[in-house]
Design goal:
Blueprint (H helix, E strand, L loop, with lengths): L3 E4 L3 H14 L2 E7 L6 H5 L2 E6 L10 H11 L3 E3 L9 H9 L3 E2 L4 H8 L1 H10 L15 H11 L3 E5 L9 E3 L5 H16 L4 E5 L5 E9 L5 E13 L2 E7 L6 H18 L3 E9 L5 E7 L6 H8 L3 H10 L15 E8 L11 E2 L2 E3 L6 E5 L6 E2 L6 E9 L2 H14 L1 E3 L5 H9 L1 H4 L7 H7 L1 H13 L2
Parallel strand pairs: 1-2, 1-4, 2-3, 4-5
Antiparallel strand pairs: 6-7, 6-8, 9-10, 9-12, 10-11, 11-14, 12-13, 14-19, 15-18, 16-20, 17-19
The structure holds ligand MV4.
Length: 461
């Protein structure tokens, strides 16, 4: 096994990886910016190296500094966590060139999936269902118009280098196409330094369903069911659950089977997630692939009983998967609420010192967090404070358990979105499992939703 792993990340995911390493008997190296010297990942790792000033560009994204830290400490692998350099093929390649194993898929796979046009082409060739649309990059508004007329309106223009919703434009009529195309191209150049665009039919009220994949270095590939991630605001996920209330056992089996078959054809390795849009008719379409461990991985861990980070590290070393598809049994129900340091109404980040803190616990409750009393939430990084995850035998019990746990959570000194979660869980649409990607928008526009949010804010200590 690896003797020492460097974790190129911070916060809860750095802790999550350190915990998996400790259980595997692997020594750990934390890296941190000067602002993160008091971070729990620094305290819990066996060694820690300061890699630069607070801005991510100069610390957690600083490749020479990370590689120096790995060489000085003689780490034999780097775990990138999520975000930062986790899907950067150049970083993965430099690690491998330095004889340091990158814990993730091969660099070519990161590169392929990083380009959404090439990813779609690969997905099609591998047999995954796609929405009707362009087969490659759309060069100009004329070509976009020809394709749009063929597939029908509404259409959506997306950036090849985008992903996660950045730089998308919905077009509802032919007259709006030229303007949308040039705006999208300009935005794509400004954001990604790559103006390539593609176009596909727009699905009005989709659900976001993703399939978790695990693939070893020997060609064994399995799926671990789905996660429902439709509760989002501006492409930030807020609540995730597994299983999805929208899938029948037949649809789950089909989405899992075609996903695994596609990954076999692509020779995918390590953990990964295939994102699908599910339309109101129950048809699913490949959207993009995430080539990393994801924030919401714990809901899958709870319903499968498998430690995904442990398996990820074992597979990166070259160990074969310890499970066959028939060993994967989904049991019970898990829900995750992302507790962010932000205003519960405006969602504006709210960094600052946590002056009072008490975490929920008890049966079926898991809190993945790097926060503690007197910890200061920094303005330099994302506002995720904790992942509150519950597990229960069925969905109604899981919802009640989450409501109970949210009620126990005390965070003083900063604002959090805990009141938002209380309001969201109280919605009939959520309780009935009848929601889609417009759920948050509707909650914030409705009388009962905003009333519940206001009451939850008043009732939150
Ligand atoms: C779409 C779509 C509807 N139709 N594509 C948003 C994130 C990015 N991965 C793709 N996204 C979407 N693509 C077509 N053809 C709607 C969205 C979308 C969305 C998707 C998943 C979860 C939340 C969303 C919120 C708004 C839009």
């Amino acid at each position: 096994m690896f003797k020492k792993v460097l974790i190129a990340n911070r916060g809860e995911i750095a802790l999550r990886v350190i915990r998996a390493c400790r259980e595997l008997g692997i020594a750990t190296v934390a890296v941190h910016s000067t602002a993160d010297a008091n971070g729990l990942h620094v305290r819990f790792a066996d060694e820690a190296v300061c890699i630069g000033p607070p801005p991510s560009k100069e610390s957690y994204l600083n490749v020479p500094q990370l590689l120096s830290a790995a060489e000085i400490t003689r780490a034999d692998a780097i775990h990138p966590g999520y975000g930062f350099l986790s899907e950067n093929s150049d970083f993965a390649e430099v690690c491998e060139n330095c004889k340091i194993r990158f814990i993730g898929p091969r660099p070519e796979m990161l590169k392929l999936m990083g380009n959404k046009v090439r990813a779609k082409q690969a997905a099609r060739e591998a047999g995954l269902p796609l929405l009707p649309g362009s087969t490659g990059v759309v060069k100009d508004p004329k070509e976009a118009e020809a394709i749009a007329r063929e597939i029908g309106f509404p259409v959506i223009i997306k950036a090849a280098a985008g992903g996660g919703g950045k730089g998308m434009k919905i077009v509802r009529e032919p007259s709006a196409l030229v303007q949308a195309f040039s705006t999208a191209a300009a935005e794509a150049v400004a954001s990604f330094n790559n103006g390539d665009l593609y176009i596909e039919r727009y699905v009005e009220k989709p659900r976001h369903i993703e399939i978790q994949i695990a693939a070893d270095e020997h060609g064994n590939i399995i799926h671990l069911g789905e996660r429902e991630c439709s509760v989002q605001r501006r492409h930030q996920k807020l609540i995730e659950e597994s299983p999805s209330p929208a899938l029948t056992p037949e649809l789950r089996e089909k989405m899992g089977r075609v996903s695994v078959e596609a990954m076999k054809r692509l020779r995918y390795n390590n953990v990964g997630t295939i994102e699908y849009l599910l339309d109101e008719r129950g048809q699913f379409y490949f959207m993009e692939m995430n080539t990393r461990i994801q924030v919401e991985h714990p809901v899958t861990e709870l319903v499968t009983g498998i430690d995904l980070v442990r398996e990820q590290i074992r597979m990166a070393f070259g160990h074969p998967l310890r499970f066959k598809q028939e060993d994967i049994l989904l049991k019970g129900h898990a829900i995750e609420c992302r507790v962010n340091a932000e205003d519960p109404v405006t969602f504006a980040p709210w960094p600052g010192k946590i002056t009072g803190y008490s975490v929920p616990g008890g049966y079926g409750v898991r809190v993945d967090s790097a926060a503690y009393e007197n910890y200061t939430v920094l303005p330099h990084y994302d506002s995720l404070l904790a992942k509150l995850i519950v597990y229960a035998e069925d969905r109604p019990t899981a919802i009640r358990r989450m409501q109970r746990a949210l009620g126990e959570y005390v965070v003083e000194g900063i604002r959090t979105n805990i009141p938002f979660h209380r309001a969201a869980l109280a919605e009939e649409a959520f309780q009935e499992g009848q929601y889609d990607t417009r759920f948050v928008e509707r909650l914030l526009a409705s009388e009962t939703g905003t009333h519940r949010l206001k009451k939850a804010i008043e009732e939150t200590p």
